[in-house]
Amino acid sequence: MLLDPLVWLSLAAPVMVQLFLYRTRPGLVLRAVGESHDVAHAFGYSVIRIRYAATMFGGAMSGLAGAYLSLSYTPMWTENMVAGRGWIALALVVFSTWKPGWLVIGAWLFGFVTIAQFQAEGWGLSVSPHLLAMLPYLATILVLVLISRDAVRLKLNAPAALGKPFHPTA
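User: That's the sequence. What structure does it adopt?
Assistant: Structure tokens below.
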């Protein structure tokens, strides 16, 4: 089976991110900025520069996803072609509790649910196509409800400085 190169990249990227975050010094610095930007700043790291670099990497990955969506997945441009999939991506981050390995499992789960809607239509099931189209979003809500029951686990794995502004003192 011949797969698109971006499919292979999507399989390799979480492994590379995992290795970067947990096996390299810059990954340790990035995690330190996420845990306590004040401590990272006290050690002499440029918190704002590191945050911008992480944001640019996330933007580049999002741009690749958008390019794949408009060039390979549906080889044409249509208005609202994303159809809320960005929210599913955010839900995947929460589902995976900020761990790249779990992110792959979640992405495959949501991808399976998305493909299931097309398979159900192919099997001739007499279900409204609108109901089938909302399956990935129902799965997203269900997973978020299930994992939100364990708030301690979510807080333990989330970066401590997540959403907190950084104001350098000197």
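The mean pLDDT is 84.
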